[in-house]
């Protein structure tokens, strides 16, 4: 069973890196395009860029196949919460862009401002979900390992 959890973890880490890169690229484009306007919420977008950068960095580091990467689940959970906050920031900015409902992602392939913004929202939300699933896999692995290294009285022993 450790092989299955390792493969799931690798797939999740690759998705975390890819989703973070997509969001970093899109939000970076917006920052570059509208850097001289005061009406755009740049600090919030910079927050999203930082979360994407941290996600890419930790995703790459934790992609290295060591069992200790399963014990990083508290950080996976924190990064997931940071992604949910970034998604909330983007939803708040969506009101100023007049791009319609936040859950209508049908136009993410359009080459328009709203299409790009919707793509950033979609990938931010998906990244939050992937990070929390990664944390759940880490929790499952951690407690499975702990269960196999204690006896019925809770005393630790060597395997």
From TrEMBL:
Residues 8-136 form the MARVEL domain. It is a multi-pass membrane protein. Signal peptide: none annotated. Its main location: membrane. Keywords: Membrane, Transmembrane, Transmembrane helix. InterPro entries: Marvel (IPR008253). It comes from the Eukaryota. It is found in: Membrane. This is Marvel domain-containing protein.
């Amino acid at each position: 069973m450790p092989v299955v959890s390792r493969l799931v973890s690798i797939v999740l880490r690759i998705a975390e890196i890819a989703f973070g890169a997509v969001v970093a690229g899109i939000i970076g484009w917006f920052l570059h395009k509208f850097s001289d306007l005061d009406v755009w919420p740049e600090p919030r977008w910079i927050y999203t860029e930082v979360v994407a950068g941290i996600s890419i960095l930790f995703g790459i580091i934790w992609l290295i196949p060591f069992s200790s990467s399963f014990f990083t689940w508290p950080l996976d959970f924190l990064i997931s919460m940071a992604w949910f906050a970034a998604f909330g920031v983007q939803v708040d900015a969506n009101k100023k862009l007049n791009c319609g409902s936040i859950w209508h992602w049908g136009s993410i392939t359009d080459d328009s401002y709203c299409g790009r913004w919707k793509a950033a929202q979609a990938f931010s939300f998906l990244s939050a979900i992937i990070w929390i699933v990664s944390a759940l896999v880490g929790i499952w692995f951690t407690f499975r390992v702990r269960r196999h290294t204690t006896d019925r009285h809770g005393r630790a022993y060597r395997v």
